[in-house]
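Hi support team,

I'm opening this ticket because the web form for multi-chain structure prediction keeps timing out on my end. I have pasted the exact lines I submitted so you can reproduce it. The total is 729 residues across two entries, so I didn't expect it to be a heavy job. Is there a limit I'm missing, or should I split the entries? Thanks in advance, R.K.
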Amino acid sequence: MSWRKILVTGATGFIGSRLCEMLALDHRVPYRALVRNYSRAARIARLDAELAPGDLLDVASLDRALDGCDAVVNLAHADDRSAPRQVAQLVAAARRAGVQRFVHVSSMAVHGPEPVAAVVDESAPIRRWREAYCDAKVAGEAVVADAIRQYGFPAVILRPTIVYGPYSFFVTPIIDDARDGRISLIDGGRGVCNAVYVDDVCDAIVAGLHDDRALGGAFLVNGDDPVDWHRFIHAFADLVSGRKRTDDHAVEAIRAHWQGQHSISRGNLGATARLLASPDFQAQLARVPAIGALLRGSKRLAAMALDDDRKRALKQRLRGRPSPFADSHHPAVRIPGEGRVVREAYRARVANALAKRQLGWAPRHRFERGVERTHDWLRFARMV
Amino acid sequence: MNPTAVFPTLRLGIVGCGAIVRETHLPVIVGESDVAVAMLCDLDRRNSERLRAEFALDCAITDRVGDLAGRVDAALVAVPPALHAPISEQLLRAGIDVLCEKPLASTAADGRRMAACAREHARVLAVALMSRFFPHNAFLKDLVEDGEIGEPLELVAEDGAVLDWAMASNSYFDRRSTGGGVLFDGGVHLLDRLLWLFGDLDDIGYADDAFGGVETNAHLTGSFTIAGHRVPARMNFSWSHRLPRSIRLIGTRGTLEARIQDPRGLLIHRSGRRGPLDLHLRCAERWHHFSAYRLQLRDFIDAVRTRRDPFVTAESSLKALEVIEAAYARRTPMVQPWLARESAR
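Hello R.K., no limit was hit. The queue was backed up. Here is the completed structure from your submission:
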């Protein structure tokens, strides 16, 4: 089946940008990329395709963006709190527009952060897990599943696992660490990684768009190779030359550290600092003229007092990202964040048999090949 | 001497009230006592109103460029590049001197027409290529010509960072608004400086990563004639990842490096008897983030008042546009092997 035009939400993100590249260059199908923040659109602006301004929380912009589209790929996930409302508004707008196919990209996280079974497949329980990201994905998926049940909404749900490849935020921190002379593992990297190459996820999305057998179904999308986090982290860290020290963190020690850090005042201060440093928040706040003037005045003072490298390091510190300017001779021990613990203490292997059977899809990339292709990009981006 | 003692306050109009005006131009304009913003012009009045409120400006607001005639002496044009030519020409014909954002125009032909229009109407047309005001420029040229690094062997100029510039619209990426991507918009600063310092670029070769849209990575090659030597040049620009952000001139006796983040300094890298040696030269006493913008504004005001050519003339800025056009005409696809579709296993 060929579509008149596909609306891609989350098009400026890691998977969305690669999907746009593949739709334009490999499949040559017309699509429209929904763009909330043009600052992030440079990668997809390389392609000869339509960029439409819009926001999943702005219903009018969704109606405009859907005009002339008969299929949707939903990859947007801005923040955990508003995610369910975003999905609900998009599904409602898609129904109004008479969309004939809706591929909702969810996550393996719907099956929870610590599954009990050794192998997770689509029959594994889905419920509220009291973990913000997992619960946001569960709530988003529930909106789509309800629409399928109630209205026969022509949707397909995909649940990718750990998606890696060029631009991946699972890969670049490993490279940053390695460049700082450090490899960071959790429990020796024994956790199961469930790595899937980004192009394979995009292939699954395209299969979801085209294969009628997939309609109404939900599919886990994982690579074929059993990969643990030790292998995953070393595969990329070893691309960086030079000596590295391995910091192996026990899960219990990480949890104890963060519990200690989570005193109310410290948590509030840290969260406020990160909120103030967030560009989106600043943009909103700057709309109040007096505050906008104050913000700009402070930035100007900082601009005069600091050189560019120091400014960037400060920004990254406020945003909670590792600084690339750490002293490489004495890399400080950094305690992994709680998000990493959720990912890297995972013990279950995620199945992909149902997707292979019903979606007519199979991953094209063995893990080594995915690493090789990511390496090509890392060299291009001068990261290794 | 206080300039206001001789000249009345310059009435400035601003056409285009987006991020570049808010972040870089207005902070220095409001700090000068002999210039006053008399009118803000933007198709979207909300942008003008926001600027007027944020900077507490006592000025009129309009959405029509024609309203500036007779009400301002000079204007800053900071609209998308495709509109630089029609708007600047309209202002110049109305007797208004213009400081135009870079690049001068979408095409060299438009730029030449703008320059001719300024001459015909005896108006100042300056281009906001503020890195020409960097103190280390002249020292870089002098030191290489004085043989400080021996015979120049290669020039490497790079500027790359993840694009995170605040954008109110699609104009950066829309071919109807802009003449290109990272080479045209960001690369023009570095390219203009090189052409201004070292003359023409010959043997142009070019590759970028665009597929019908605007490029995010660009690789330009060619050769300059520096201190009597033919010097191969490699220039890289990126909106997707970090690059060194500098001009490096590699010679037989060492390397001279002018870093964008250190406009008042120069580095000389040498191999000494005891190993690598880095010398830092200070080319100016005081410098901060807004210094180049302030020097640019002061130069424009002085050019308007004394009816002289500005430091960055339209004619001198055309060279970079011509090289960019030549590069785009010779475009080859950049190698991006991770994009090739993998065959089934």
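A quick check on our side: Chain B has a mean pLDDT of 95. Let us know if the file doesn't open in your viewer.
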